[in-house]
Each structure stands twice: as C-alpha cells, then as structure tokens.
Write a structure and sequence with these properties.
Helix content: over 70%
Keywords: Membrane, Transmembrane, Transmembrane helix
Pfam family, one: DUF6198
Shape: globular
Number of strands: 0
Largest sheet: none
Number of domains: 1
Protein name: Membrane protein YczE
Strand content: under 5%
C-alpha cells in the first residue's frame, strides 16, 4: 500500500498552482495558459486606464499616484496618460538598484494604462450633476479593483509601482503595508505641492482598493505550472531566485 503513495515531488510537479507565484520574466511566459493569460492581462490594463479616467471626470479626488500625475501636467505640456507612462518608466529606473526584474506585464502596464486613460478622457466629458460625479468616482474605484485583479491574476509581472513597493520591502525588511503607505503619502504630498487633485475620491480609493482587489483576485487568478526544481542543487537555485 505504501508503494502506491505518490511522492511529494511528483505531486508538486504535476499539480497546477492556484495561487499567485513569484516567477521570473521567462518563467512567467513558460508557465502555460497564455491563450487566457495574455488577453486577461491586456483587458485588465485597459480597464485600469478607464478607471483612472472615470475618477478624473468625477473630479472628486484621484488615486495617490494620480494626484502626482495631475499636479505634474500643470507644469508641462503633457496629457495625463503621457504622465502616467513617463512616471512608470521613471519608477522602472528605480527598480535597478532594487534588483527587480520586469516582465511582459510590467512593460505593458507602463504603456497601456496611460494610452487607455487618454483614450477614455477623449470621449468622456465631465458631468455637471454631483450625483453623476459621485457615480463616476465610485465606479472608477470599483473598476480599478476589478482591473487590478485581472492583470495581477494573469501572473505576467508586477506593475512598475507595485514592483517598487515589493522591492523596497524586500530590501528594507519593512512590511508591505508600511512601504506602500510611505510611498503613497510621499507622492500625494509632492502632487499637492504641484497642484494635484486631492479629495474624497482619494480617501475612498485608499480605503477600498485593497479590500476590493483582495475580494476579486481569487476569481481571476489563473492556475499556472510553477517550475519544478531538481532535488539536487535546489538550495542554490532557491538562493538565486531570492536575488532577482
């Protein structure tokens, strides 16, 4: 009877992972199910840009990083979406000393979100009625939670700002919550000094985006096959993965 029991190594090698995995850029592409994961990634990123535009047209306050973007474009001839793209690549430069590795989703995030935001802003006017503006603000926050769950669940790489957060947490030993709070307070303060838009929507976003993403993420997390390390030399490979 004991001879029919599968070994733990066999189980790990054949069972798909239904949780988020920390894979390198190449492993992300080799993890399978790209026919679902790629469309889900780009739908999520496009909707993320739409959610940003909804909050802008609601004019009741923006997400913390968008407070910075909106303040920055007051001083340069640039659209909001272009500012999102610019700051995404500025943040990616900060990945270098943190030794974070961008994936396909990382670069796509830096480009698609800004394009989608500008496209939506071009076709969506700001309403005058306060009820409509509140609806846009709430809709933007909820849609952002959905979009985040979609692109994170595709497991094709962190967004630039998420990678900065996780990289700083790994390097400093501080908690993710502490690092995220510190980063968002810093960008809001800088954004306000530049004339960015802070308001009720900023507070609603800060309080709701985490729980909304956590609620929806299990719905869209795609099962992928994590790479199986050989038993010999597994410690060395595990140590190498920690340095990426």
């Amino acid at each position: 009877m004991s001879g029919t029991t599968p070994s733990p190594a066999t189980t790990v090698a054949t069972a798909p992972r239904s949780v988020l995995t920390d894979l390198g850029p190449v492993a992300q592409l080799r993890a399978g199910r790209l026919a679902r994961r790629l469309p889900q990634l780009y739908v999520g990123l496009f909707l993320y840009g739409v959610s940003l535009a909804l909050m802008v047209r609601g004019a009741l306050g923006l997400a913390p990083w968008d407070v910075l973007h909106s303040g920055f474009i007051r001083h340069v001839p640039m659209t909001l979406g272009q500012a999102v793209v610019l700051f995404s690549f500025v943040v990616l430069v900060l990945w270098i000393p943190l030794r974070e590795m961008p994936g396909l989703g990382t670069i796509s995030n830096a480009l698609v979100v800004g394009f989608s935001a500008d496209l939506t802003l071009a076709v969506l006017a700001r309403p005058d009625a306060i009820a409509a503006r509140i609806a846009l603000m709430i809709g933007g926050v909820v849609l952002c939670g959905l979009a985040s769950a979609l692109y994170i669940g595709a497991q094709l790489g962190r967004g630039p700002r998420d990678g900065l957060m996780t990289g700083l947490a790994r390097r400093t030993g501080w908690s993710l919550r502490l690092v995220r709070t510190g980063l968002e307070v810093a960008v809001v303060v800088i954004g306000l000094l530049l004339g960015g838009t802070l308001g009720l929507g900023t507070v609603v976003y800060a309080l709701a985006i985490g729980p909304l993403t956590q609620l929806m993420l299990p719905w869209f997390t795609v099962d992928v096959m994590a790479p199986v390390l050989p038993s010999a030399g597994s410690s060395a490979q595990a140590a190498e993965s920690e340095t990426r």
